[in-house]
Amino acid sequence: MRERDIDRGAMTTAAPMGPTSIRRRGRAERSIYGAILLGAVLIVAGLVAEQLVSLILVTMLTIIVSLPLSVSAERLAPLGVPRPLGALIGLVVGVAVVAGGLALLLPPLIDQAHRLITDAPHLLRTAELKLSTVTGDRPGHVAAQLQRDLTTFVRDPSQLLGPITTIGASVASVIGGVVIGIITAYYIAARPQPLTDGLLSLFSPQTRPQAAATLGRIRAAWLGWLRGLAASMTLVGVMLYVALGLIVGLPFALVFAVLSACAEVVPYLGALASGIPPVAYALTISPTRAVVVLVIYILVHQIEANIISPLVMARAVRLHPAAIAIGVVAVGEVFGLLGLIIAVPILSLLSILVDVLWIGRRQ
What we know:
Elements: H1 2-13, H2 19-76, H3 83-118, H4 120-135, H5 142-155, H6 161-190, H7 193-200, H8 208-248, H9 253-263, H10 269-274, H11 276-285, H12 287-317, H13 321-341, H14 343-362
Helix pairs in contact: 2-3, 2-6, 3-6, 4-5, 4-11, 8-9, 8-12, 8-14, 11-12, 13-14
């Protein structure tokens, strides 16, 4: 009797499932396969996006470089100058200005940088002695070790072949990328209409006017950033060189001024980082000199932040200083060094897109 009951239970368990159960099981299997496929697609998309980030940033930087050339072509068009020729004139003028600035700055800059590197062991030794008088500890051996390393490299230059080869390859790659970027920027400025029309064709006819207006806002913001950046770099470099070199008499003032001017590309963080080397160097001379240099850096950057940024850059970019400070850190974490260079254009692009796609529609 028990064997019959067991056989009946087994038959009941092995009975075929109904149509509802089959559909449920099919949906569950499809959900599992769909989740696996979605995960695989997201992983592949993440890997592709990671590889394309540098390409996207370089493309964005090329477009930014093309904007002044485009402005030059537009300014010369009423005079009967063809657009390609106007863009070429803007490119030649820009290259001439950069080359002239380098011709004026490079010889004294190289001389001061060479003397600064030569005096590095002595400066470190002086800093260690001053620090030991304050803390009471025995001076370290950093300067002596640096002097030994420099002597070793001078006596056996073959040790530098590896690093020199790597640096040379990197420099050649950067120069090649800059040349290609400049040529591409010229062609974009000479014939922007096909690219603009192709981009606008992705939108419906009803939304194309709004898309064109958004592109105009982005262009104006990036041009304003370029004008503000050029003004900030010039103002900071000149003021620091005058204050440090002519007033305070700090050696290597040109090196520190150029370093600070270049660091203006990265808002706030660049100014903070560029002030550390001159203050540290002045500390090897005297604590009073270090305090004076620190005060000069604070005053110069306060003038830049309260005059250039509000009058030139903030009006075009329309970003709050706190948003820029936080955004620069976020952009640097996501996109790295290249992202830091164009952090403000990236933030202005995101701000305009949020305003158009989210805030504008809600209002």
